[in-house]
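Progress narrative, Year 2. Work on TTF-type domain-containing protein from Triticum urartu advanced from sequence curation to structure prediction during this period.
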Amino acid sequence: MRGRGNDDSTILVVEREPGLRCQISDYPPNDQEKARMAYIKHGAYHFKMDEYPPDESVTHPRKFQYHWFKSFPWLKYSPDKDAVYFFPCFLFCKKPLGKKGSDVFTVKGFKKWKRVNDGERCAFLTHMGKDSKSAHNYAAKCYDNLKNKPCHMEPLVVKQTDGDIKRNRLRLRVTVDSLRWLAFQACPFRGHDESLDSKNQGNFLEMVKLIASYDEEIGAVVLGNAPGNAKYTSPTIQKELLGIIASKVQSEIRKKIGDAKFCLLVDESRDESKREQMALVIRFVDKPGFTRERFLDIVHVADTSSATLKEEISSVLVQHQLDVNNIRGQGYDGGSNMRGEWNGLQAKFMEECPYAYYIHCFAHQLQIALVAASKEVADVHNFFDHLALVINMVVSPSKRHDELQANQVAEMEHLIELGELETGSGANQVGTLQRPCDTRWSSHYASVCSLVKLYKPTFLVLKSIATSKGSGTSPST
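Result:
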């Protein structure tokens, strides 16, 4: 918990109740060390009760035992939650990553008392781990180091000169401008090889170099001439700045929407990593009376069921303070999860807002029409039938798919030996054949391109099938 003094200096108030305190990661970065020192000064509070409450959620209720403090002095008991927390982990463990159980001893609290008196499988011992590099032991080491600092000296604040501030701002401005331009042009940032001796370090670093070549003042403060801890070029910095820019763009879009009625345009598809992504576009009429369509957000979804999509869309609308009752139209593809009259996405929104009329996406209708029309042209129909047959024959059986990838690796190694392929981090990735989708005409083009790219490895797999004894497949197939 934090407050402000009259001198505008930050005052840290230590919350003794472990179940009610905010996490260290919730403090501003400049206050986190102060917060740790404040908690260490007060120490691990061993709350003593005449009788601890039993856990009524299990068949055989058990209670917390005070003597556990002696064996595990880092424990902190929360009477409010009837749960325990590990003090060093609270102070030094990183923000939970969403993995199951990663926040039990720091955020949620542990209260499965039966698992404590379980010998070597004791939950406390399991959490601590035998490896000196475990998360708990790392936190305990950091705790000891900070606790044993001579005289508990406050971190020294090094005041920067006006010149340092000017150089830092110039360096940051170059980074921000480069990111904005690349993002606006939809260009990738990273390079396959970003090492110092690389001929091409990727669009972002090469753009910073280009800007520096036109201005000696900039060249004197960026890249190799920047301090090692303040280059502002790392992937983490890039993502953080992009997140800030994205938030500002979303805020500007929200400001222009105002209280206007709007339509939802939604589509979902898998990205290169096979994760389902849902794009959300808002269509509205601005104050001057012009119709606008603005891409508002893209969200990863666990699946494409109507219930999941409804939940994620509603979450985005709430985040941007957009009222569901202001929806006046829905535009999706014609999948059953979208257009279903009783349980589709459009029906779920109609239950909340009866004016949110659904319209089948015209672009999707055109895609379906093209696919249907292509089947009426014999040559085109036969070509894609043969393409689908080849892809299914090569990709469906896992053994043949493994053979396809092995052939790719062998071909890439051969081309690298001949000097026809460049090497580098992320280059020459092993791919696979892509199946065309019946409702996406554009996917047929991607399918053809994948076969052209993997022509030789695919040919070798088909040849192996034709010559294999006992495969049951004739050479003509």
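The chain has four domains: 2-152, 162-233, 257-360, 378-467. Residues 1-10, 151-157, 473-477 have pLDDT under 50 and may be disordered.
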